[in-house]
Design a protein that fits this description.
Molybdopterin synthase sulfur carrier subunit; five-stranded mixed β-sheet; alpha+beta; Ubiquitin-like (UB roll); nucleotide-binding; phosphoprotein; 3 helices; 7 strands
Length: about 90
């Protein structure tokens, strides 16, 4: 059963990330044994080749289930999470 080899997460895009991808959210399949949050950026960039997403992610932070993540290396996505790309906000 192929369902057992992959799980999924929901990625939310805001501001520049939404502009770069043309999306506000997407479902992303991840391995059933998990995906380090620190690897998610490369996966998303590979899904959106030819966009400015790589540049946007360099200055963005991650949020997992509405909690900001300070150390992406310490988080492993297991499936079912809602991950948001949080772009820097310019004030004025």
């Amino acid at each position: 059963m192929s369902e057992s080899t992959q799980s999924s997460i929901t990625v939310l895009y805001f501001a520049a990330a939404s502009t770069a991808t043309g999306l506000t959210e997407e479902i992303v399949l991840i391995p059933s044994n998990g995906l380090p949050l620190s690897s998610l950026g490369d996966l998303l960039i590979s899904r959106h080749l030819g966009t400015d997403l790589a540049n946007v992610l360099q200055s963005s932070q991650w949020s997992v289930d509405a909690e900001m993540v300070d150390e992406p290396d310490s988080v492993v996505l297991k499936g079912g999470e809602e991950v948001a790309v949080i772009c820097p906000v310019s004030g004025g």
